[in-house]
Amino acid sequence: MFERDSAISTMSAQVARIIGTRIVSGEFRPGDSLPIEADLCLEYGVSRSTVREAVKNLAAKRLIEVAPKLGTRVLPFADWNLLDPDVLSWRLNAQFDERIIEDLYEVRQCFEPRACYLAARYATVEDHDRIRRRYADMVSMLGQAALAAGAEAEFHLAIIAATHNGLFVTIGGAVKTALRVSFGLTQKDAGGLPIDLAPYEEVLSAITERAADKAEAAMRRLLELSRQRVLNALAHNRDRRSERA
After folding, report:
1. How many angstroms from the chain centroid is the CA of residue 28?
2. pTM recorded for the entire structure
3. Nearest 10 degrees: CA dihedral of 235, 143, 161, 181?
4. How high is the pLDDT of residue 224?
5. Residues in the chain where the model's pLDDT stays below 50
6. pLDDT of residue 7
7. What per-residue confidence (pLDDT) applies to 234?
8. Which of 16, 79, 109, 225 has the CA that lies 20 to 30 A from 38?
């Protein structure tokens, strides 16, 4: 249950991850009360201070609310901090389905094409070099799913950073986890189809040529192709599970 060799560095963070995953997966539903502190300590084999810190973490993410005499209750979905990196990661790993994919790409279509437009207008020479390096990293790592996922995310984030718009950068950072998970899925199992690099090259060329309208349109096409690829990979995984059943 606990990950000893992971980026999660504290026991309280691991307890928060486990409980958070149980919440976003629907095991604990909105309005449900969590087990009392003593039971959580016994279940996970940790101290009261560890459980309290985990509960405080989840409350800060608006997954739960602690109230005197009422205990700890799961909050409604509308209250959750859905752009929190941990919440987003837990949701993606617990319920990576068509609905969450569509939600993710609707958000991306709202701001990434505009980010490309702004990057084409305002990017510096240093920004261009950074975007080119991130693209080269992605190409060099295509055979290594986890590394390629990270490199593809960094390519998109380099473009967003080139807007020099702080709010865009904040939103981009919030969906970084989603970029890694979704691209990792397409890399790991997309029915054996190779990644088409041409759309990425079109985005890169348009930005470095400072063709703002062209860059915006190129990113719209890239995101639509990416969305379809993730959906295809999801369907392929489902078919394979059905065949094994």
Report:
1. 22
2. 0.76
3. 30
4. 94
5. 4-8, 190-192
6. 37
7. 77
8. 79
Burial class (CB in 10 A: 0-12, 13-18, 19+), 152: buried
- Give me the residues paired with residue 74 across strands: 64
Q: What is the CA radius of gyration of the chain?
A: 20
Q: Which of 69, 58, 60, 56 is nearest to 28 (CA)?
A: 58
Q: Which two tokens stand for residue 126?
A: 């240093």
Contact by Cβ (8 Å): 118, 206: no
Q: Where are the alpha helices (DSSP H) in 61-189?
A: 85-94, 98-122, 125-140, 145-161, 166-174, 176-188
Which is nearest to 159 in space by CA: 197, 195, 184, 132? Answer: 132
Q: Which residue has the tokens 């995953």?
A: 21
Label residue 71 left, alpha or beta by phi (over 0 means left) and psi (-120 to 50 means alpha): left
Gap between the Cα atoms of 171 and 117, Å rounded: 16
Residue 86 is predicted with a pLDDT of 87
Residues 150-190 pLDDT 10s: 788 899 999 999 999 998 988 887 777 777 666 665 555 54
